Fold this protein.
Amino acid sequence: MKLLDGITVVDLTRVLSGPYSTMLLADFGADVIKIEAPKSGDDSRNFAPFIGKESAYFMSINRGKKSVTLDLRKHEGQELLKKLVKKADVIVENYRPGTMERWDLGYEDLKIVNPKIIYAAVSGFGHSGPYSKKPAYDIVIQAMSGIMSLTGPEGGPSCRVGTSVGDIIPGLFTAFGIMMALYYRNVSGKGQKVDVAMFDGLVAALENAIARFQVEQRVPKPSGNRHPSVTPFDSFSAKDGLVVIGAGSQRLWELLCKDVIAQPELASDPLFVNGENRTKNHKELKNILEAAFSKMTLSELTSALEKTGIPHGPINSIDRVMEDPQLRARDMIVEIEHPVAGKLKYAGIPVKLSLTPGSIQAPAPILGQHTYEVLQKFVGLTKEDIADLHQKGIV
């Protein structure tokens, strides 16, 4: 039995933030019915890279779902969606606020159809506030949230984080919100609306930047690989390459001085005696550490760090990540066979539950692959009914 067995999700999301959240639900057993526009489908079906005509981008975040084509701009399509919602537990959408309402498919409309429905909406700026109707993509949200202002080389220009955290983090919050709403419904019998903004999500992920600004009265700037308030916590050059080291406590700092670089007196140097002083004098400290590390190969340095228990690691490229034995042991690199594209490797399921573990239910669907199956099962249409809708361009 899967954790979300029996939960039906109607998924109206496209591109990344919404599809990522519904993929997580599918991994734990939810029956996710992905609604796509006839002929074109989810925008991300057109995103590179491709295997034949199939987008590897789309396949990486839509596994385990069923694809149904439905034109929501037409009245008949809207009515069919309402019939699906009547039997569903959750609906998820990431249209710009106001779009679903124009189609009479907003939360106030759908809770009449199904009072217990959980309506989750993830959008750029949320369903309230002066920015509500503004469009957004990951790069816009990274810029506006302040995360981009913290990212990049020290003294250099701000940079976008290398993965789309502006979508992924709100996608996680959306899945989290849906699970909380499902729990509340189990207790109360009531559905509700889950409103997640990408902007809110990234501001919530600013970690200590807001606190530092208030305490230090300085606007935080990019600091490269260095942690802004824990030192040494950075990348360092050895004789033949780079390693990251996180000596995040006083004990680890003293072990680094004594057992790794054989300079125990450095631990009591007034410039570096405590975390605050080490951060204040981080440039001088990095010069001292790299002078010592430059006499050691990466193998020698990592061996010494391993013996002391100081957290450290290589800066892996993606090819090395995919071959990492730890990730392999925890099923974090998994192979899925797609009926058209063949075998591809993807990131696995990061949440390991002991009694109700998740698993990948199926590869990403071909556009419209499950239209007949779903409309027959949930709406009660015949094959002839669906063929007629297909002729009209509704499905």
Summary: Residues 165-188 form the longest helix (24 residues). The mean pLDDT is 96. The first strand starts at residue 8 and ends at 12.
